[in-house]
Known about the structure:
By secondary structure, the protein is of the alpha+beta class. Helix 9 runs antiparallel to helix 10. The strands form 2 sheets. The chain has a 4-stranded antiparallel β-sheet with strand order 1-4-5-6. A two-stranded antiparallel sheet has the order 2-3. A hairpin with a 2-residue loop joins strand 2 and strand 3. The protein contains 11 helices and 6 strands. It folds into 2 domains: 26-100 and 153-323 and 361-471, Up-down Bundle (Outer membrane efflux proteins (OEP)); 102-152 and 324-357, Outer membrane efflux proteins (OEP) (Single Sheet), CATH 2.20.200.
Amino acid sequence: MNKNKIYQYTGYALFLLSFAACKPIEIQQRIENRNVPEKYGNADRDSSNTGKIKWQAYFSDPNLLALIDQALQNNQELHIVLQEIEISKNEISAKKGEYLPAVGVKVGAGVDKVSRYTNIGAMEATTEIEPGKEMPDPLFDFGIGIQAKWETDIWGKLHNATKAQLQRYLASVEGKNFMVTNLISEIADSYYELLALDNELMVINQNIKIQNDALDVVKDLKKFARSNKLAVKRFQAQILKTQGMQYDIKQQITETENKINYLVGRFPQPVPRNKDAFDQLVPQTVHTGIPSDLLENRPDIKQAEYDLAASKLDIKSAKARFYPSLDIAAGIGFQAFNPTYLVKPESFLSSLVGELTAPLINKKAIKAAYYNANARQVQAVYHYEQTILGAYIEVANQLSKIKNLESSVDIKTKEVDALNESIGISNDLFKYARADYMEVLLTQRDALESKFELVEKKVNQLKASVAIYRALGGGWSH
């Protein structure tokens, strides 16, 4: 067997060995479960979906609509997220640049002084550029040209990395949409809470008037010896206690207004609102659609889906690192030891180089990156499934809450009506000595507490209508 054959077979063997060594470890990927129940618990199937309604149509209070609109324009955190989206978008361009040929212009100059007693020095000393014209010493070197380098991306490593970055960009957009839904719901919650506090302040003022009327009765009875000083003092103490509650509520109003101002992106100022509108507010009617709608309506689910798609592409990119990569480099230009020679055809040079590189041994880093990509894909699957499950449970909880609050508000309203009547009854009985002053005080206290509880339940009703809207994926522009 001649030497050429030996070299040829040796080359084949080394190529096959390197290719076998490049074979990646196959890992079974986890497939996501997209199945959801056909309906929410015992609720009936509903074809229409409130989550698809724009927020401008879902909310009716003009003051609330103005606050939301201003927040979407000025909220600083939202603007921070928008800049993160811009950064993610620029990353796509950066990834695309990695698999496109890199072309650049090169201009250089240098000087070289070699020893006479070296092979290069000896050759230059006996070499003539032209008859009778020796090589210059020292030897200058001038050059100008164009160079290009390209990784051919045979296995799609760079293309898949770019696609993964695109999926992450889309995920960041959905993350912004999810933040918008949360921002809108947070403003609406705070706005309804502010109206509730206004209503509580009105209730306190009404109760103070009732208590003052009762105090006047006690004072009159004391004049005719039908009551005593202790009763007068107890009624006065009750009035002072109720008056003290005003300042706690006023502080809560200030803090709630400033919370809204913060969300809107402005310095503290009064929040425009109709303070008498709370009793007329009615929770919006909600249509849930079917649970599978959540996969399209909820921005957090879509964000998790894009992250999952990116993780799958990351596995392909990591897998491609096991295979050989082909790099091509080329260049053209002019080079000479004298600038005046650069225009001569003899100064023209060109190069074309192709390199095939394959990992052979010590592939721990490549294996670790591949294992990590697979682990992140499994994480992304669990996160996606967890997000779907959380969204479904959130809707189911809010549906139950809306139903229970409706019954609770109805009962509490009847309780408040009964206690309001009992105040007048207790006052009349006290006038005619058929009830003592403690019964009057307790009745007034119970009536005040029940009114506060009714306000609390009503505002929770309004907040539940906001929560179900957000849970269904409402708020961002479809």
